Amino acid sequence: MNRCQFVDDHQRRFGVKRLCSLLGIARSSFYYWRRTAAARAARRSAEAGLAARIRRVHLDSDGTYGAPRITAELRDEGDRINHKRVAKIMRTLGIEGVRLRRRHRTTAADPAAAKAPDLIGRDFTATVVNTKYVGDITYLPVGGGKFCYLATVIDLCSRRLAGWAIADHMRTELVIDALAAAGRTRGSLAGAVMHTDHGSQ
Predict the structure, then answer these.
(1) What is the rounded CA–CA span in Å between residue 130 and residue 191?
(2) What is the reported pLDDT for 52?
(3) Euclidean distance between CA atoms 40 and 88, whole angstroms
(4) d(CA 42, CA 48)
(5) Fewest beta carbons within 10 Å, which of 124, 151, 154, 160?
(6) What is the DSSP pairing of strand 132-143 with strand 193-195?
(7) How confident is the model at residue 65 (pLDDT cuts 50, 70, 90)?
(8) Entry pTM
(9) Higher pLDDT, 99 or 121
(10) 171 in helix, strand or coil?
């Protein structure tokens, strides 16, 4: 038990001065602890509410979202929070996201192909949602020597997954399906810039 809490619980019987002396607590420290009790309770309540929201987002993602994605979701909902705090609470709750392992690069540069212009100028930040996106393709082993490809479209402002598609090939349709999914999520991608690594796909 906290020593200040002990003093508070027994002060009527033994007196604050005597208890603080016996427990080696400065009376000023005890009175400060008591004055700030309401603020501490409010912080604990806010922390519990945040933990509940983190758990909800994690469950809604079928346990796949890690701290960065959960942080982005909470920011979209209006929470002003950073990913370090989310990661700390996730560790306390004993939950974590799924990490995808890349077995090999799916983007192989074609030296004969003309390079598309870098419309974002290597600036992977955005201040407005639905203006800049980054796309990627990840290799997913599924057992039995087989594999699939996961194409993703991520908003550079919210860092939120806007669209995705999965297939057993790396043809153009895979990327088109991911972009179509993002378009359905956002309503429209008109005017937005899409950045991908230069590659054969």
Answers:
(1) 9
(2) 93
(3) 19
(4) 10
(5) 124
(6) parallel
(7) confident
(8) 0.46
(9) 99
(10) coil
Given its phi and psi angles, is residue 191 left (phi above 0), alpha (psi -120 to 50 degrees) or beta? left
Rounded mean pLDDT of 188-197?
A: 79
More confident call, 137 vs 196:
137
- Name 118's bridge partners: none
Contact 149, 106 (CB under 8 A): yes
Neighbouring residues of 128: CB distance < 8 A, sequence distance ≥ 6:
157
What pLDDT score does 87 carry? 92
Sign of the four-CA dihedral 177, 154, 94, 60: negative
How far is it, in rounded angstroms, from Cα 170 to Cα 152? 13
Q: How many CA atoms within 13 Å lie on the side-chain side of 27?
A: 7
Q: Per the structure block, which two tokens stand in for 85? A: 């705090």
Question: What secondary structure letter does DSSP report for 152?
Answer: E
Is the pLDDT score of 201 beyond 90? no
Cβ atoms 51, 89 nearer than 8 A: yes
End-to-end CA distance of the chain: 62
Q: Which residues contact 130 (CB under 8 A, 6 or more apart)?
A: 155, 157, 186, 188, 189, 192
